[in-house]
Structure prediction request, 266 residues.
Amino acid sequence: MIGYSTYAFFWRHSDRMPEPLSLRGALEQTRAAGVELFQICDYAPLDGFTDAQLRETRAVADDLGMVLELGTKGIAPEHLARFLDTAGVLGASLLRSMVYAPASRPSLPEAEAWLREALPAFEAAGVTLALETYEQIHSRDLVALVEQIGSDALGICLDPANCVANLEHPLDVIARCAPYTRNLHVKDFAFSRRDGWVGFTYSGAEMGTGRLDYDALIAAVRPEARGINRVVEHWLPWQGSAEETARVEARWTERSLNYMKEKDHG
Prediction:
């Protein structure tokens, strides 16, 4: 299934907009595009939601005929337990997280111990914890962590763009992580020369115009055959004004959806 993430609405959600888009608004726009999956990922206002607001969000998704996934950062057992409870209220069967959080950087042995403590509750609830690939932990270490624990409730959220900053080639990350992947974050990316040709900027690109080898990603992961959802994200730089940024973000989101659909149909 193809889905949208709050990262596909990153700027439209932000307080740089005259009228930031609500979560309900993003859900409604997602469903209007014919998309039935939405991943609420690193969405700061969610931390302040009451149980009633969470239930209301679930009701909106149910009324729209949509499936929800959830995303956070960090693997401290108490943090994962709280988000597992939130996933239960939202009806989400997948929680994406990262080994490190802004205030929490466990060693690899600590990370393994924390995950072993947290995962029995995920197994009992039928919720998958998908740890994302990114530059702060080498993909070899992430794969080793998943292998060592060996839980059916633990896998990888594969986003090859993130690991370039750690000098990992995207194709190497794809090949290494594909067998353990349980969720895909799909965004294109590119290098461009800075003004005066002094260095490079590594940033997002409109789908199909950058360095993401989407065909190789799909061939390695086989998401349709394995029931793995593909979630649209962006690294869109600010476009100079709220109006232009919102317009380009909406265009990139539509382009990503159409690109993946076209690829699906050959």
Strands lie at 2-5, 37-41, 67-71, 94-97, 128-132, 154-158, 181-186, 188-193, 200-205, 229-232. The first strand starts at residue 2 and ends at 5.
